[in-house]
Amino acid sequence: MKTQIELRTLLHSVDHKSYPAYKALAGAWKFDRYVLVIDHVQGDPFAAPSSLHVEIAHTEAKFPAAYYEKDCARIALQDYLVRQMSKQFEQYNFKAKGSGKSGLLSVSRCGQAVLERSACQITKNGVIVRFHVGFPAFGRTINAGELEKILFDFLPRCVENSLFYGRLDQKKVESVIFLAEDQEALRHILKEEKLVAFVANSSILPRKSGVSDLPLMDSVPFVSPVSMERTFRLPHRGEISGMAIPEGITLIVGGGYHGKSTLLEAIQMGVYNHIQGDGREFVVTDDTAVKLRAEDGRSVRNVDISLFINDLPNKKDTTSFSTEDASGSTSQAAAVMEGIEAGTRLFLIDEDTSATNFMVRDEFMQQVISREKEPITPFLERAKELYEKAGISTILVAGSSGAFFYIADCILMMDHYHPVDITERVKELCKEHTAPRVQAPGFELPDFERVLPAFRGGRKTGGRDWHGKEQRGRSQDGKGRDGQKEENGRYEHMKVKSYGLESFSLEKEEVNVRYLEQLLDPEQVTALAYLMRFGLEQVMDGKRTVRKVAEVIWAQWEKEGWKPFCSSYIPCGLAKPRIQELFACIDRFRG
After folding, report:
1. Per CATH, which fold does 246-449 belong to?
2. What angle do CA 255, 260, 264 make, to 5 degrees?
3. What is the pLDDT of residues 227-272, one digit of tens each?
4. Rounded to a whole number, what is the distance in angstroms from the first to the last CA of the chain?
5. Cα–Cα distance between 462 and 491 in angstroms, integer?
């Protein structure tokens, strides 16, 4: 391995040369307490910045082993280190001068949730932190003096102040680990006690704005109804009290602007752990929960929606239903079945974003339009059996139909942001009214043996295969192995782009994810693009079921982390999604 002295010498030798000469810097360089690796050098100062990472041995970083032995603690520590590195970079960003992205120093920008990111990995050998640097130039002429400032002055200070245990606030680090272990303990309690969600007393649920995930200052703290309050003991915090939502069907009602959707939104994001001070640290939800909504115009492929939709006028088969332009009700029916296929134990539904005719049909409408002429069996008539026969609970926000009262096991009314348990009162009122039909015959779940066609796309090649090795030889059908195109015996990955929380593309095929409301970070969308690419090129063979495809992709991640999904190096800028969102992307891919 070359030394930092050799790196400095090489820097001086390329000074004032044309920008491509910077590529000679790629490789590993030994500094006093860490190794600096330059993974990728940008093509010019206006291109995406260069990718680098530092490696620090555990003997140097000195974090207690107990802080990274458990996954929950390791992920929390990784998240904390990225945040520390980001704070340090803010002091030096663009202080090295030049054109384009010269002087940029950046690492993943973390939000309120704790996610596993490629920006930091704690392995059995040490700590790895990945980041971006804009290599300085004037025009397209190398300015090695400014890069020397970054690599030998700015960066060592950032690394020293953020990645070594002895330089950090050790009480703060301890509190980060303890919080993660308490959150993990609470998730285990939910499973043991047959609960689907828990909202701690004094939680701050509202967010600052629709575009900010920060807590809203001076908002009303959450207080559980006495009838639903439970107290649990956590390993570090001790006793914690709050509202425990049991398995079954829970209905959230109340007037407009009283906090119904706010409560549901907090619950749907409870599938992730949150940082100290977020206000939702102890809002914890079954981590398989899926938020359902209507998605007019989405594609649906080979989904059995016959549990909800049957006897279409055009005689289209709903046991293997496909469309390129689903209606609101059809899309929501497909989403329910896809969610079950993805292994959810909890559906979250807000009436405001649902297809009304999918959710409920009142008695008057049923008198006007007879059941024989209506192909839709509403969710109202399936929800009870979804729980009793399939073990899938529902939390539903409703405000327009009292029919849902008849299926609810628990009814919460939000009154000026305070939850009130009105279950007993409403059940008494129900006795005074004629009950609607709340159960339909013929409940039967499909076998979920759905198989999608093998992917036969790809891009022009001239590079290396998934594992970085040159591939030779030609298959009988003229394709590269696993669907990658072949040209002159070599292969190349599909081109990936992501567009915030809206979508990602694989070559020219776009996957719309804007309605997957439990995605909260653009880096998750980018990671989904990488996982999908791997699935299309390596797994989706026209024989494996959708469920098997997702499981194989996920097992690869669990076994080897980010490496199998990346080409020559692991980039900064990936955050782990859930397997439920991976299923959703497979279902939405039109290619």
Report:
1. Rossmann fold (3.40.50)
2. 165
3. 999 999 999 999 999 999 999 999 999 999 999 999 999 999 999 9
4. 45
5. 6
